[in-house]
Amino acid sequence: MREIASNLIDWLEDGESIALATVVRAEGPSPRSPGSRLAVTASGRMAGSVSGGCVEGAVFEIAQQVIASRAPQQLHFEVADNTGWDVGLSCGGKIDVFVEPATPAHRLVLESLVTRETVAFATHLSLGTHLVLWPDGRQTGDASLTGALQGVLRHLHSQPRCFCEWHSMDQPDGHLFLEVFAPPPRILIVGAVHIAVPLVQMAKHLGFQTRVIDPRRTFGARERFPDVDELVNAWPQDTLKPEELGPQDYVVVLSHDPKFDVPALSIALRSEAAYIGLIGSRSTQMDRHVALSADGFTAKDIARIHGPIGLDLGGREPAHIALAILAEIVAVQHGRSGGMLSSLS
Asked: Could you give the CA distance from residue 145 to residue 170 in angstroms, rounded to a whole number?
């Protein structure tokens, strides 16, 4: 949903009738994973994909039928036979695609994506009904689905992450497709130094939102960071708030100046940020630890800081250091140490 959210928002504002095709189950080497979507309008506009091109034409035609009838349809595709006449997947996998008209429930999910709220979205594939759930207990839609989602409700109150699941329900032909949308991972960079420039560029390619914070307008200039999502010319203590940093946030302190470093680290340590990294030598790290200890942080608190920042890749150029930082962030994101795969038994 996230990859086509901007298209959907624009089309809804234009008053378009929309059908959404969603991969709800995939087996074998399918080209797109569950949760992948293709959006189609009555006027013929398209966004997204359910197969990378193999069956999009057939899904487009069904989507037009769904828009006209307002009746959902569930489709099944697998490898085409050797004649090449059947609509099928060239990769040999199998996918189930659920095609439905866009509903007010979809609009609520879109609004949550825009406001960076975590939200769960359940679709009853037989009835075509939905239930939208938020971590604070709000819900709207088909309340009969709530009982099947108790595990998800618990999950929403813990660390959020995006995922899709297929559930079989008690009633005959009762299948439930569940999605949880968490805010996209975000890298917050304190210090608009030279290393921050390639770091922003690389992070964007990996799907991170980026925010650069530096009160020095010469450093924090849009010309230097054309790809950044948010550029803030302010002191970290004036713009960062612990309650606004969560498990999807990765804080990178590159300023190499205690006037920036210590306030930024103090705020990050009081938050639930997934990662806190600090550039600088081991002596610089120790100086910052002493200052943080004086502010009341314990050794356990300070141990959350990754410093010197990054994996040991050996490069000294700004892009090499940025790559090392991003590699460590990705390793932390996936619960890995960042070692060489060839060394694993």
From this structure: 11
